[in-house]
Write a structure and sequence with these properties.
The chain has about 525 residues and is α+β, with helices and mostly antiparallel strands. It has 2 domains: about 15-295, no CATH class; about 325-505, Alpha-Beta Plaits (2-Layer Sandwich), CATH 3.30.70.1230. It has 17 helices and 8 strands. The protein has helices spanning about 15-35, 35-50, 55-80, 80-85, 90-120, 125-130, 135-170, 190-210, 215-220, 225-265, 280-310, 310-320, 340-345, 350-370, 395-415, 450-465, 475-480; strands at about 325-340, 375-380, 380-385, 425-440, 445-450, 470, 485-490, 505. Strands 1, 2, 3, 4, 5, 6, 7 and 8 form an 8-stranded mixed sheet that branches. The longest helix is centred in the middle third of the chain and has 42 residues, at about 225-265. The protein is rod-shaped.
């Protein structure tokens, strides 16, 4: 595992027993894949036998093939995958090396098989005809035939095992560490052998068989027509193997990446794609996963901003532009404060006080947001809500009044259920408000100030004098008169203000308690 490896966030842990079972199953499948070289050899030898009609050679070929590819492939596969039997963590480093090692094993077994086949006369059953050939021709033909077999079988082993490894890497991807693909890996490195098989090998095989090795084929008992037919079948077999495995190695990472892209478009920020190849496609997948991690981190930051600014709009603006433009517009301010909180908190441990405060502000904050407002600040047991800030929304005064009544109703329901729900006083004012971000390089906050802010705070306090629970300003009443029945309770003069704030309205709260103080 290199230094660039990273754990996948939010991924479930893989049970060691489950991993052991998955690796044991993979080892068996890998052994079957290597042993399937026996079937490939039987197919090629069977075609040669059918074309030449020399069945005596087929028996010897069958015995050698079973020994070399059946037994040798199974034993070699067991040795190659032995490190996986001891693996208790991420098997990806072993899986990356396994296709190349399997191809080398297949090449070694095939070369040994060819040497034995030449020795026992499998390819040249007519010893007399073979003896009449020049020594150089026999040597060149033996090397050529061995090279063709070795290349074909190693090619098959590499891509078949690579396909198995890619499947396992995709299945284990949610549970393992993500490893960066090798920067030196190139998809073209896998295409070169395919090009040789599809373009060069068939043509070269046919040209040599009809030219330099024509006497060799005649010694094998093959006519020109049979030689051409045999070469054509060999070419088609190579093409079929190439198209099958190369198309899978190309389309699998593309398909996984496309599926992850669709999940991301649907809003799933855990939509990472499994890296199943160590080439340009693997690096593209790794880049996509880094982008998803960045989006996931951005979402975490936005959630953190949301918690500490109180609004998605502020968080989105900060994440989008890294600043929130200061504005001045008419808005409605809601202030709420617990009645007699000092008395309620006497004798309680600090933890109990904060628990009760959190219950209370959870109710207030939820209701404010449900009515389109923004919880701007928590000051002890006071809550300040903004309506029509930071973004513009119509009907802000009406929504603020409805939120105030909903807060009182929600608290009354909690009291009726025997839960903590203190009586709270609410003041609401509408007017010109200046809002924006203030602070320095170390800390900043979104805030609002203006006459309406001060008036809402004073109206909240004026509830004590009038025996009410909700007081609204005259401007709020003008904009939200249809939201609730209101009555005038008198003028409110702010300290330092040369004139009264106007007739202040209250709304009789229809709560389950129906006490004489239940007026708002």
């Amino acid at each position: 595992m290199n230094a660039a490896d990273r754990p996948r966030p939010d991924s479930p842990a893989l049970d060691p027993a489950t991993l052991a079972r998955a690796l044991a199953l993979f080892r068996r499948r890998h052994m079957n894949t290597m042993a399937s070289l026996l079937l490939l050899d039987l197919a090629t030898t069977g075609v040669l036998t059918l074309v030449s009609m020399r069945w005596t050679a087929f028996v010897a070929a069958l015995a050698l093939s079973a020994l070399a590819f059946g037994l040798g492939g199974a034993v070699g596969a067991r040795i190659l995958t032995r490190p996986l039997a001891r693996e208790r963590g991420d098997p990806t480093p072993h899986l990356k090396k396994l296709p190349g090692r399997s191809a080398a094993l297949a090449a070694g077994i095939t070369l040994a098989y060819c040497l034995a086949a030449f020795q026992f006369g499998v390819f040249f059953p007519d010893e007399a005809a073979l003896g009449r050939l020049p020594a150089g021709t026999k040597t060149a033909a033996s090397l050529w035939f061995a090279a063709v077999y070795v290349a074909l079988y190693a090619f098959f082993a590499y891509y078949a095992v690579a396909d198995r490894c890619a499947t396992l890497r995709a299945n284990l991807a949610p549970y393992t560490r993500e490893s960066e693909p090798d920067a030196r890996g190139r998809f073209v490195n896998r295409l070169v052998p395919v090009f040789l098989f599809l373009a060069i090998a068939p043509a070269s095989l046919l040209a040599l068989d009809l030219g330099l090795f024509r006497e060799v084929r005649m010694a094998q008992g093959l006519t020109i027509e049979q030689t051409v037919l045999l070469d054509a079948i060999a070419a088609l077999l190579a093409i079929a193997i190439s198209l099958w495995f190369v198309s899978r190695s190309l389309t699998r990472p593309v398909r996984l990446l496309a599926e992850a892209q669709r999940r991301l478009e649907a809003g799933d920020l855990r939509a990472g794609a499994a890296i199943v190849s160590d080439d340009e496609l693997g690096r593209l997948t790794a880049a996509f996963n880094r982008m998803v991690r960045g989006l996931r981190e951005r979402e975490r930051l936005r959630d953190a901003f949301d918690r500490f600014t109180g609004t998605h709009e502020v968080a989105d603006a900060v994440m989008r532009a890294r600043e929130v433009t200061a504005v001045a517009r008419e808005a409605t301010i809601l202030f709420t404060d617990i009645e007699g909180f000092s008395t309620l908190s006497e004798g309680l441990a600090p933890e109990a006080v904060f628990d009760r405060l959190n219950e209370y502000v959870a109710v207030v904050g939820t209701v404010v947001r449900e009515h389109g407002g923004t919880v701007n600040n928590y000051l002890g047991d006071s809550v300040m809500g903004l309506f029509n800030l930071p973004d513009e929304h119509p009907g802000h005064a009406r929504r603020a009044v409805q939120a105030a009544l909903a807060i009182q109703a929600r608290l009354a329901e909690r009291r009726a259920a025997g839960r903590f729900a203190p009586r709270t006083r609410i003041g609401i004012a509408t007017g010109l408000v200046h809002a924006g971000v203030i602070g320095d390089a170390g800390r900043s906050a979104y805030t609002a100030y203006g006459h309406a802010v001060n008036l809402a705070s004073r109206l909240e306090q004026a509830n004590k004098r009038h025996g009410t629970l909700v007081l609204v300003s005259e401007r709020t009443r003008e904009l939200a008169e249809d939201a609730a029945a209101m009555r005038c309770v008198g003028d409110v003069t702010l300290p330092g203000s040369p004139r009264p704030a106007g007739c202040t309205r209250s709304r009789r709260a229809r709560t389950s308690s129906r006490t004489s103080r239940g007026r708002a």
